[in-house]
């Protein structure tokens, strides 16, 4: 019960981790099974932890140093600290990059911070600037903002062509995917429909990000969901279509009312990927679980215990088996 993410591991994996009581470094290969975004931790010579690396090699410094030796060999004890400090560190990076956005040009800013922070902060400013444009000058304001977004997109594409490293390129690729969607929303959902009221349904139905009460909140229609700060690394994002948007609305509405959702459709249409991408948008830990006829209530019970204890999402693939 100390570290609920252990519920998602098999007994063999759990034994392997718990047997490494003296040597924290040997837990590294198993981290991926407990934390989706963490590939390795940065240890110093005294085996203290100073930060985390994603699979892509992105580094996030920790807000405080963790000392596994002080846990006297209890792996679950220092892994709980890793989880706690991970959330605080991601929040700190988001907060710092939010303040930095106003000080730098966007193209320089977009290669100066971690990918996850850049995507979240750019969505917050998009929401804020769209609402400002609507309130101040209606449709002409939106048209101006649309042109500005087009220029921003061109600038970002120009940066991709310069000499940047693979990590920055991956961040910009994800940013471009979100920027294109943001631009299209303003054109097709607002300008073409002649909507310039922030309380209109066409705008409320979009996934909107706000910085309120020193926290990131994600709103869609009447739902207000908290951004969870789970570190997801520098991963690619799905290209968002009208169907993806509709799926997001339904799933967010269900979650807000404490229900679940069941996307249905032919094989290979992206049902699982859509759920995973929504989890990324809300920075939630999402576990994909492949169901089979060999499962019984004991295994499922253990899995649900873990989900309820750590507040993760789960996507049950092939549930009809």
Give structural attributes.
321 residues, Split barrel-like, Methane Monooxygenase Hydroxylase, Chain G, domain 1, 2 domains, three-stranded antiparallel beta sheet, 8 strands
Please describe what this structure looks like.
The chain has 321 residues and is an alpha+beta fold. Helices cover 50% and strands 13% of the residues. It contains 10 helices and 8 strands. Helix 3 (75-101) packs across helix 5. The longest helix is centred in the middle third of the chain and has 46 residues, at 115-160. It is globular. 30% of the residues are buried. The mean pLDDT is 93. Residues 2-96 form the Dynein heavy chain linker domain. It is found in: Cell projection; Cytoplasm, Cytoskeleton.
Helix/strand-derived class? Answer: alpha+beta
| Number of H- or I-type helical stretches | 10
Number of domains: 2
Supply Rg.
21 Å
Fraction in helix? 40-55%
The poorly predicted ranges are: none
Strand content: 5-15%
The first-level CATH class of the largest domain is given as: Mainly Alpha
How would you sum up the global shape? globular
Spell the H/E element sequence.
HHEEEHHHHHEEEHHEHE
According to CATH, the homologous superfamily of the largest domain is Dynein motor heavy chain, linker domain, subdomain 4
Total E-strand runs: 8
Domain Dynein heavy chain hydrolytic ATP-binding dynein motor region: 227-321
GO molecular function, one term: dynein intermediate chain binding
Main location: other
Keywords: Cell projection, Coiled coil, Cytoplasm, Cytoskeleton, Nucleotide-binding
């Amino acid at each position: 019960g100390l570290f609920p993410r252990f519920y998602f591991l098999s007994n063999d994996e759990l034994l392997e981790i718990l047997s490494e009581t003296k040597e924290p470094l040997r837990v590294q290969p198993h981290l991926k099974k407990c934390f989706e975004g963490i590939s390795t931790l940065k240890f110093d010579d005294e085996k203290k932890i100073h930060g985390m690396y994603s699979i892509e090699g992105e580094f996030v410094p920790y807000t405080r140093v963790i000392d596994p030796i002080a846990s006297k060999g209890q792996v679950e004890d220092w892994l709980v600290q890793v989880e706690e400090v991970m959330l605080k560190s991601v929040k700190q990076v988001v907060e710092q990059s939010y303040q930095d956005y106003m000080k730098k040009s966007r193209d320089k800013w977009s290669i100066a911070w971690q990918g996850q922070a850049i995507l979240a902060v750019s969505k917050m400013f998009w929401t804020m600037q769209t609402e400002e444009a609507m309130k101040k000058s209606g449709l002409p304001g939106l048209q101006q903002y649309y042109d500005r977004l087009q220029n921003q997109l061109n600038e970002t594409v120009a940066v991709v062509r310069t000499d940047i490293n693979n990590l920055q390129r991956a961040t910009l690729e994800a940013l471009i995917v979100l920027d294109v969607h943001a631009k299209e929303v303003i054109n097709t959902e607002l300008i073409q429909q002649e909507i310039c009221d922030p309380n209109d349904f066409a705008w409320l139905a979009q996934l909107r990000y706000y910085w309120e009460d020193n926290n990131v909140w994600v709103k869609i229609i009447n739902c207000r969901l908290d951004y969870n700060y789970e570190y997801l690394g520098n991963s690619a994002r799905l290209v968002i279509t009208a169907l993806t948007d509709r799926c997001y609305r339904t799933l967010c509405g269900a979650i807000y009312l404490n229900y679940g959702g069941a996307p249905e459709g032919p094989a290979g249409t992206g049902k699982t990927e859509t759920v995973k991408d929504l989890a990324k948008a809300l920075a939630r830990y999402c576990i994909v679980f492949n169901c089979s006829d060999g499962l019984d209530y004991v295994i499922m019970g253990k899995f649900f215990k873990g989900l309820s204890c750590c507040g993760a999402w789960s996507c049950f693939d092939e549930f009809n088996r």
